[in-house]
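To the wet lab folks,

You asked to see what we're planning to order before we commit. Fair enough. Below is the target structure as tokens, and below that is the sequence we designed to fit it. If anything looks off to you, flag it before the synthesis order goes out.
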């Protein structure tokens, strides 16, 4: 049972690393963008409108009413998945960490 826990912990760690990197990129780029933006300013309204439209478009993609070529994002994960498969035989815990990272990356595609 402890082997399953170590695999689950490694998978979770890979997912946490991915989400932390994504949040750092968004936060780093977002600071300059929203420094002077307020909720009621023109820029704030534009950002909210764009975010809302993006969510609607992504929702339409999710329910397959709109097709967008997002396969290139999945192509980014392919080398990670291949690396995970090769590593799995020799270091399964490391392989699960790679899988946790790659799984979330592939989910964007």
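Sequence we intend to order:
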């Amino acid at each position: 049972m402890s082997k399953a826990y170590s695999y689950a912990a490694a998978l979770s760690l890979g997912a946490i690393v991915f989400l932390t990197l994504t949040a750092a990129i968004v936060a780093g780029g977002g600071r300059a963008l929203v420094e002077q933006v307020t909720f009621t300013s023109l820029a704030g309204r534009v950002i909210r409108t764009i975010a809302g439209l993006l969510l609607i478009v992504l929702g339409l993609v999710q329910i397959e009413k709109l097709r967008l070529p997002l396969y290139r994002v999945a192509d980014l994960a392919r080398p990670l998945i291949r690396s995970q498969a090769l590593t799995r035989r020799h270091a399964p815990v490391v392989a699960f960490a790679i899988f946790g990272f790659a799984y979330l990356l592939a989910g964007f595609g």
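Structural context that might help your review: The chain has a mean pLDDT of 82. Residues 2-107 form one domain.

Thanks,
Computational group
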